[in-house]
Specification:
The structure is a single chain. The protein is of the alpha/beta class and about 230 residues long. The protein folds into 2 domains: about 120 residues, Rossmann fold (3-Layer(aba) Sandwich); about 90 residues, Arc Repressor Mutant, subunit A (Orthogonal Bundle), CATH 1.10.10. The strands form 3 sheets. Strands 2-1-3-4-5 form a 5-stranded parallel sheet, sandwiched between helices. A 4-stranded antiparallel sheet has the order 6-7-8-9, with helices on one face. Strands 10-12-11 form a 3-stranded antiparallel sheet. Strand 6 and strand 7 form a beta hairpin. The radius of gyration is 18 Å and the shape is elongated.
Length: about 230
């Protein structure tokens, strides 16, 4: 049985109880929060392995909560699954930009939520277990174990998803990946995604990498590749 700790954040008591009941039935340790302020407090005190986060919260909304959690070194590695009634493409893109690891639209199936949680935690464990050598290409250093990227010795601050996208491309220099292949590699197969959400991650990567962003090449009509070192 699972023993991971889950923090469920929603302003509706019925939703919190539904999430708690189903996750506890599967063996998870669950705590809940009804506001953004409480969520940020418990992200530190409860130290969850994953956060299920509603976006439409009283006071500090879910997007701001996600932004603050990802900006804090003490909580930034906690995966976040956004659970919300806001399901337009623009909402999904914004959620991904804030560092969400998955995005589920209400009304939702508790079984689907549980499956998504298991998938995110499994990918996190697999990623954390990776102790392979660092990748060095074009004066970029990608340390899989420490999940750090450096450019000319300077540390580059990337979100979880940005790091995974860069790692996927850099492991296969010269090879073209479609947008859907990138998402399957980062989040697992079956993740609902639009082309724009991948483009947002690539744009963010290029901006943070500065001059090294040019090594992520767009292959028109296909996808992206990382330029081979020569």
């Amino acid at each position: 049985m699972a023993k991971e700790k889950i923090l469920a954040v929603d302003d509706e008591e019925d939703i919190r109880e539904l999430i708690s009941f189903n996750l506890e039935k599967d063996g998870y340790i669950v705590e809940t929060a009804e506001s953004g302020e409480k969520a940020m407090e418990m992200a530190v005190s409860f130290s969850p392995d994953l956060i299920v986060l509603d976006l439409m919260l009283p006071g500090i909304d879910g997007l701001e909560v996600a932004k603050k959690i990802k900006a804090d070194s003490a909580t930034r590695t906690i995966p976040i699954i956004m659970l919300t009634a806001k399901g337009e493409e623009a909402d999904v893109v914004i959620g991904l930009e804030m560092g969400a690891d998955d995005y589920i639209v209400k009304p939702f199936s508790p079984r689907v939520l549980t499956a998504r949680i298991k998938a995110v935690l499994r990918r996190r464990a697999e990623s954390g277990a990776s102790t392979g050598d660092a990748i060095h290409i074009h004066n970029l250093g990608i340390d899989q174990g420490r999940r750090q990227v450096t450019a000319d010795g300077r540390l580059i601050d990337l979100t979880y998803t940005e790091f995974q996208v860069l790692l996927h491309l850099a492991k296969r220099p010269g090879w073209v990946s479609t947008r859907y292949q990138i998402v399957d590699a980062v989040r697992g197969e079956g993740y609902a995604v639009t082309e724009r959400s991948v483009d947002v991650q690539i744009a963010g990567l290029r901006k943070k990498l500065g001059g090294y962003g040019k090594y992520i090449e767009t292959v028109r009509g296909v996808g992206y590749r990382f330029r081979e070192a020569k």
